[in-house]
Write a structure and sequence with these properties.
- Helices cover 9% and strands 58% of the residues.
- With 253 residues, the chain is mostly beta strands.
- It folds into two domains: 22-102, Pectate Lyase C-like; 111-239, no CATH class.
- The longest helix is centred in the N-terminal third of the chain and has 18 residues, at 2-19.
- The N and C termini lie far apart (76 Å).
- Residues 29-229 form the Putative auto-transporter adhesin head GIN domain.
């Protein structure tokens, strides 16, 4: 019995060891990151650029390409096929753009601070993290991609389309949000001073209104807002329903 138990334990240890294959990569300095093919990226701040690839097999490790071109760190599979058990850990400073596509994921375990930030997600990609950009932040989410982030910035521009799913929190001075084609946006925890909404094609937005809000809505889009804005303007002839929770569901069609 002892021999059988020992054999099982050794087998399990071997399986766990095999599941934790990693490799350090040498990279040069960069300010943008582009990841795709189902790869999971974890980005943290550090003065010295470094990267580590972790996977369940050596075959997957050798299939991961990391290269810096024109200031952009590109991370993808050599055969262009998707993977689901590869995580890349990257450290650097001065990042100002993230891009993910084809079901890749980006996670920020630390707050990323910069002057401006550009985030682009497409084709099932996902982003989770906190960004503080003193000037501007741009977020583009499309084609079933998912964004879940806390943003602190002066000016936020968001473009959401193609069944995008977006959760926005944080604090911005002015926000310009464009949503269409069944995009769903929850920004109830986003504090703004001035907000402009452009919604169409069955988009749905749930937001917290700041002092001033402008609503431009058509094509069965829907906006629900809370708060007590001093000024609310909306386009004439809008087909959407605009509900103000602070006034017992006042609506306009």
């Amino acid at each position: 019995m002892l021999k059988i138990t020992t054999t099982i334990v050794l087998f399990l240890i071997g399986m766990l060891t095999q599941a934790q294959v990693s490799e350090n990569r040498t990279i040069t300095d960069f300010s943008k990151i582009e990841v795709k093919n189902g790869i999971a990226l974890s980005y943290s701040n550090d003065p010295i650029p470094s990267a580590k690839v972790e996977s369940g097999s050596n075959e997957n490790l050798s299939n991961i390409v990391m290269e810096v071109k024109n200031g952009t760190l590109k991370i993808y599979t050599a055969d262009q096929n998707p993977v689901n058990d590869v995580t890349v850990y990257v450290h650097n400073h001065g990042i100002n753009a993230f891009s993910a596509s084809s079901k890749a994921t980006i996670t920020l375990p630390q707050i990323v601070e910069t002057r401006s930030m550009d985030i682009r997600l497409a084709t099932g990609a996902k982003f989770t993290g906190i960004v503080k950009a003193s000037a501007t932040t741009t977020v583009n989410v499309s084609d079933d991609a998912v964004f879940n982030g806390l943003i602190e910035t002066g000016r936020l521009s968001g473009n959401f389309t193609g069944n995008a799913s977006v959760v926005l929190a944080g604090k911005v001075y002015e926000a310009f949000l464009y949503a269409n084609n069944n995009a769903i946006i929850s920004a109830r925890n986003l504090d703004t001073e001035n907000t402009a909404i452009f919604a169409s094609e069955a988009a749905a937005l749930n937001i917290h209104a700041g002092s001033n809000m402008s609503l431009n809505i058509s094509d069965t889009a829907k906006v629900t807002y809370s708060g007590t804005p001093k000024s609310v303007k909306y386009s004439e002839g809008a087909l959407a329903t605009i509900k103000d929770k602070s006034k017992d569901g006042l609506s306009a069609n």
